[in-house]
Amino acid sequence: MAFGKKRRVIQELRSSQFETNIMNDTSQPNPEIPLDSLETCSTKSGNFAPNLVTTTLRPSPRAHHYATFRETYTEPNAASQRIYLFPAPSRAQGGLLEAFMSSANIHFEPLPVEDEECLAIGRTFVNRGQCAPVVYITGNLIKYLLALRRKGMSDDDILHNYGFIMVKTSGGACRLPTYEEEYRKALKGIGLENFVIELIDIGLARQSVTGLRINRQFYLRIFLAIMLGDILNDIERRVRPYEVTPGDTDRVMQQVRAMVGRSYRDDSDRALTTALRLARTMIESIPVDLAQVKPKVRIVGEFYVASTEGHCTGDMFRWLESQGAEVAVRTVTIYLLHKVWRRIWMAEQEFRARRKRSIADWRMFLKKSIKWRMLYLGLVRRHQRYTKLLGGYAYPLPRMSTMLRLTKDLYHRAFFSGEGFMEIAEHIMAARQNEADMVLSLKPFTCLPSVCSDGVQSKVEQEEPASVFLSLEMSGDAIANSRSRIQMKLFEARELLESKLQQLSVRLGASREEILRTVRDRKSHVKMLRIRKNALGCTFLSLAEELHQ
Q1: What is the mean pLDDT of residues 259-271?
Q2: How far from each other are the two terminal CA atoms of the chain, in whole angstroms?
Q3: C-alpha distance from residue 283 to each of 170, 270, 277, 542 (Å)
Q4: For position 303, what pLDDT does the model report?
Q5: Judging by beta carbons within 10 Å of its beta carbon (0-12, 13-18, 19+), is residue 472 exposed, middle or buried?
Q6: CA 14 → CA 4, 19, 52, 60, 112, distances in Å?
């Protein structure tokens, strides 16, 4: 009866187009709802309730496709006068990118490291369902612009002299491409709706409305700044836990970053090479004490949260070092290489999907494939060269083929949103190849790709019983709770490390005290921290085994 009554009501509505209001409130607007949507309207009892519908029944409007915002408050060829703000993954990468762009007369300025005020401002303007990166980045941008207002700068001067730039390369379940709408909404909320926002995608060359030339050299500067920043960050986190005088590593690395930034030139690599060699000498002058048994913690996860040094993770890296751990962070370079590999894989899949392949199809496929493969190999070789010039203290890049092989039966390579298969592969590599004593996965709260990978990580833990793994969703809240969970896992990692030390003493035929004495008697030097093949995860165990050989 209820279903028949519902059908009769719908027929009456179609024959007589009458209007009804929600809760009899005539002050509210009446949006148009398609007739087909009434088919699914029902109450808990199953009866159709027409008085709950707010509509004038008319045919469905024609669908409108989404179009991005068109900049209107700009002048052509004004890129050399405009300051582009950008969110830097780390202090090193922000400073290097600012210096590299200044050599081409492009003014980049990294936003300050986010703090608790950025979180509060971001939550004021951003949808609460969004993940932590867009909340912090939006809050940081709005905080910076409001500070300019307090200094006396007018809105017209802000609109003419400043802009915002960010990479938008992602897709699938990741919501990174939708961040622009959140930025626009927040800027509109403070009266700067025409503020310039440049969103760039890897490999797409164009000239923006502000005159910013986004070409191959532009992307190369971004890649090299991120790559060198990752290498310098690796060295800093490798040396700092063992420094004799606290603060020596930070002081030296600050000088190194400034020197490397000043040496970059688009047309020559000679000055940069000289600077990197001098930087190696400066790094090797830091006094260290390597006679310390510290568990190595491998940081993986979403690239922003896993590399940020601000409030989102509670300055996680330095806190882990204060707890007696050595930190190895998954670099942003691997994330960018994954995006380049995705272009190669998509070109191959598109070509294989064609049943009839003409000569033009072969030419197009070879053009795309060769272009992206050359870029991939060129970036890998540059990373190897710069790492060697700096002494070999940075971790080598994992091969995509190796990670694909490890995750073949666990994660489909077509699911490339977020970090794709890389987070799972790095967990397996850390456990099987003994690269780390603990794996810590950091990701934003409500990160959809990370939810998919976390479902697979539980299976990896079952297959790798020696793995110590912890996954945390970071949102800026409950930092104390997160640190408490990490301390419990660090206790497990230390117990596992003690068992490895006992196995090493049995294999070398020496007691634990003799091994400690051997390492302590040997004069420690930064050169002993170079990354070696087949080395154990803990730096002390690798060094002890090498000295006894």
Answers
A1: 85
A2: 87
A3: 36, 20, 10, 21
A4: 80
A5: buried
A6: 16, 12, 17, 13, 59
User: Running DSSP on this structure, what letter comes out for residue 62?
Assistant: P
DSSP state of 524: P
Q: What is the DSSP letter of 68?
A: P
Which pLDDT score is estimated for 377? 92
Let me know: does 114 contact 141? Beta carbons within 8 Å: no
* Residue tagged 């990354």 (tokens): 531
pLDDT score, position 207: 56
> Which residue from 9, 179, 1, 165 is spatially nearest to 87, judged by alpha carbons?
165
CA distances from 476 to 25, 89, 323, 445 (A): 41, 16, 20, 9
Q: How many helices (H) and strands (E) does the chain have?
A: 19, 12
Question: What H or E segment, with its residue span, contains residue 228?
Answer: helix 216-239
Mean pLDDT of the chain: 80
Pairwise CA distance, residues 531 & 435, whole Å: 11
Reduce the secondary structure of 488-512 to three states and give it as a string: HHHHHHHHHHHHHHHHHHHHHCCCH
What separation in angstroms does the CA of 451 have from each of 301, 456, 503, 529?
Answer: 11, 9, 37, 36
- Cβ proximity of 436 and 327 under 8 Å: no
Report the distance separating Cα 411 and Cα 428, nearest Å. Answer: 13
Q: Which residues contact 543 (CB under 8 A, 6 or more apart)?
A: 290, 519, 528
Partners of 166 in beta bridges: 199
Query: pLDDT, tens digit, for every residue of 372-404?
Result: 889 899 999 999 999 999 999 999 998 888 998
Q: What pTM value is reported for the model?
A: 0.82
- Confidence band (pLDDT; 50, 70, 90) for 80? low
Which has the closest alpha carbon to 468: 310, 298, 342, 335?
Answer: 298
| Contact (CB, 8 A) for 170 and 418 | yes
* Mean pLDDT, residues 75-85 taken together: 68
Residues near 328 by beta carbon (within 8 Å), at least 6 away in sequence = 234, 237, 238, 296, 297, 298, 299, 395, 435, 436
The pair of three-digit structure tokens given for residue 503, joined into one six-digit string: 């196995």
| Residues shown for the chain | 549
Taking residue 32's Cβ as centre, other Cβ atoms within 10 Å add up to 12
Inform me whether the pLDDT recorded for 250 exceeds 90.
yes
Using a pLDDT cut of 70, give the percent of the chain over it.
Answer: 81
| Sign of the CA dihedral with 513 first, then 514, 517, and 518 last | negative
Q: Is the pLDDT of residue 143 over 90?
A: yes
How crowded is the C-beta side of 460, counted as CA atoms within 13 Å? 28
What confidence score (pLDDT) does residue 549 get? 65
DSSP, res 247: T
